[in-house]
Amino acid sequence: TAPRTVLLTGAAGGMGTLMRELLPPYGYRLRLFDRRPVDRRTSENAAGEPDVITADLADRKALREAVRDVDAIIHLAGISLEAPFEKILRANIEGTYHLYEAAREEGVRRVVFASSNHAVGFTPRPADGSAAIPVDTPHRPDTYYGLSKGFGEDLASLYWDLHGIETVSIRIGSCFPRPTSVRMLSIWLSPADCARLLHAALTAPDVGHTVVHGSSANTRLWWDLSTARALGYEPQDDSEPYAAELVAAHGELDPDDPEHAHLGGAFCTDPPQWPH
Ligand code: NAI
Ligand code: 15L
C-alpha cells in the first residue's frame, strides 16, 4: 500500500516549496521539517492542525519526533552547494546520519534521498552520440558537497543491509521551474517529473537500496534513466523547447572548456558557494 504520511525535510527550500504543492495530489499528507520556517498553512495533520517542525538536523530529539509515525521520508534538507568542509560535515554528513538513526529508532521503512549529479560530477560528460553515463559509474565527487552525497548513498546502502531500511537515492540533475543554462538542458528535472519520480520512489516494491538518475526525458540526455523507469517512473517533460533560446544566448557547450567537460559543470572549476 502507498505511504500516506511522508516527512519532507528541507521543506522551506526551492525543491521543498515546489514539492509541497505537487505531492499532496498524489494522496500524501506531508509533515514539513526545515531549520527555516515554512508557511504553516501548507500542511495539516489528521486533526487539521499544522504539521511543521522547525529544527536543525543536529537536533536529534526533534528529528525523532519528526519521523515518529510517518510511513516514509523524503530527505531534501542540507547544504545544496559547495561550502567549507566543517559545514558540509555537520549538515549533510552528520545530519543525514542523525536522520537515518531516527528512522531506525522509530521503525520507518522507506527513505528517498536527494543525492546529486555532483556525487559523480568529475565524470566526463558524454560526447554527442556516445553512450549515456550508467548509474553504476564510480563515485567521482567534484566538491565536498558532492562527497557528502556519495556518503549519503553509502549510508543508505549500509542501513539497508544492516537494518532493512529501504532507500531510493536520486542523483538529481537540475530541478528548477525551467532550465537556465545549456548544461541544464541535458540534466533538467522538471518539477512535475520530480513529483512523478518521488511518487515512484515511495511506492515501488522491494527497492532495497536503488540509485537512480533524476531528470526529465530530455532530448540532450547525458545519463541512463533505466533504473528510474524500473521503479515505474515515466517522465513526461523534455527541456528541448528551451534549447533555441539558451543556445542563442550562450552558445553550444565547448568540449575543450574545462567547465563544460564534465557532468558537474562549473562545480568542477569554480563551484557556487553556499551563502549562509
Ligand atoms: P535548497 O538549498 O533550496 O533547500 C535546502 C533546504 O534545507 C533549505 O530550506 C535549508 O534551510 C534546509 N537545511 C539546510 N541545512 C539544514 C539543517 N542542518 N537542518 C535543517 N534544515 C536544513 O536546496 P534545493 O535546491 O531545494 O535542493 C533540495 C535537496 O536536493 C538538497 O539536498 C540538494 O543538495 C539536492 N539537490 C538539488 C538539486 C536541484 O537541482 N535543486 C540537484 C541535486 C541535488
Ligand atoms: C545541485 O546539486 C545543486 O543543489 C543545485 O543547486 C544545482 O546546482 C544542481 O546541482 C546542478 O548541477 O545544476
From TrEMBL:
Ranges where the record places region Disordered: 255-276
Single GO MF annotation: oxidoreductase activity
Entry-linked Pfam families: Epimerase (PF01370)
Protein name: NAD(P)-dependent oxidoreductase
Residue span(s) of domain NAD-dependent epimerase/dehydratase: 6-174
Family under the similarity heading: Belongs to the NAD(P)-dependent epimerase/dehydratase family.
Highest taxon above the source species: Bacteria
Keyword terms: NAD, Oxidoreductase
Entry keyword annotation includes DNA-binding: no
Family matches, as InterPro entries: Epimerase_deHydtase, NAD(P)-bd_dom_sf
